[in-house]
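Notebook p. 47: complex prediction with magnesium ion.
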Amino acid sequence: MKIIVQKFGGTSVATAEARIAARNKVSDAIKAGFTPAVVVSAMGRKGDPYATDSLIEIIKNENSAVDSRDLDTIMCCGELISAAVMAASLQSVGINAAALTGGQAGIKTDANFGDAKIRNINPENLLLYMNAGIVPVVCGFQGITEDGRFTTLGRGGSDTTAAALGVALEADCVEIYTDVEGIMTADPRVVADASILDCVSYGDVCQMAHQGAKVIHARAVEIAMEKEIPIVVKSTFSDAPGTLICNEDVVEKNSSEPGRIISSVAYLKDLAQFKVRLDGNDVNSGHKLFDDLAHNSISVGCLNLQPEQSMFSVFMFDAEKTCKLLKDVGYSFEVHLECSKVSVVGSGMRGVPGIMATFVAALAEKGIMILQTVDSDTTISAIISQERLNDAVTALHDAFKL
Ligand code: ADP
Ligand code: ASP
Ligand code: MG
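Predicted complex, structure tokens below:
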């Protein structure tokens, strides 16, 4: 059996027309000799009646401090509706199909409600359906705990369901269908002339996702990478070939641009950057600061520690709590609210001189102040003021000729 997992995102199942386009992709896969397993997200986006954000709003209006287990229960409902409707759509054209919850598809998770990790998948039930010629339409983004509670896998987590099912079913390929024709050199909502990458490595896409590119869930890429299952990101609404995500050596062989240095520009919004003064004569002062933050469950990023000061960022929703903590403990600090992090990502930059020079020059030419840089061997990032974010993304996209 040649198995393919086909995942359809929120916009691909939002309307009757979209569902026709989606089911045509399923029917094409069957005609091409594949046995498909379908994964769906909740219908539509923020503001649409059954979208995840709308469900969260309903319950939070009732009680903003709702128990995380019950929040996960309502958050699973969007995918339940979507799976039933998509199964009905497939049945309407003679494709035998059945909607399954994450639990019915054998997905067991830990009990970290809101951001649960998949512990194991037993594909037996799915295979019963598939061997009987029935297309399972699985609710993305959800699993169940050992004791049977609904869990969700983190926002955007239907991609992760698809990748994990791809591994469990030993699929030939995982297709992620969405509203863009592939992974692009920048978010097309910010850079109108961003181009589509024909082929890109698991590592680069993972970095892009961690740096904020919402096109695919980072964990999905990590799961597929481990078992080297190819992922193709493509549009439900066209026949464009999309982007193949695979190993670096396969990228080098297949890419129209071998030796590419930078793959993409990504961004993360809504950060607050802190600069905290430390006692340069006390080796424990940095340790104490990060202990204080950790004990208050404040998650920090973009860390920089020097004898006399430390810089770090938190999400805006933690900014007030962080200010209060630093004041209460008696630290002297500065804070920049409403910041963003803009990053260039590319494993090709390893050992290449001049990337930082181009990066800094691109932002300086537009008069964009860099508050801090952070880097790894495949990523260079800068914290900047959020009001200049779009200019920064465009400037970097131009400077690296993406
Ligand atoms: P889905 O509901 O299908 O999962 P998402 O909204 O999660 O769709 O992801 C698709 C969106 O990701 C696109 O509409 C696009 O605006 C955004 N996006 C951000 N960065 C990129 C990028 N580098 N390439 C393509 N799309 C991107
Ligand atoms: N519906 C979920 C969300 O909005 C999962 C997904 O779309 O992948 O986060
Ligand atoms: Mg998504």
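Notes: The chain has a mean pLDDT of 96. Residues 9-10, 41-42, 52, 78, 140-141, 155-159 surround aspartic acid (ligand 2) (CB under 6 Å).
Next step: compare against the earlier run before touching the bench.
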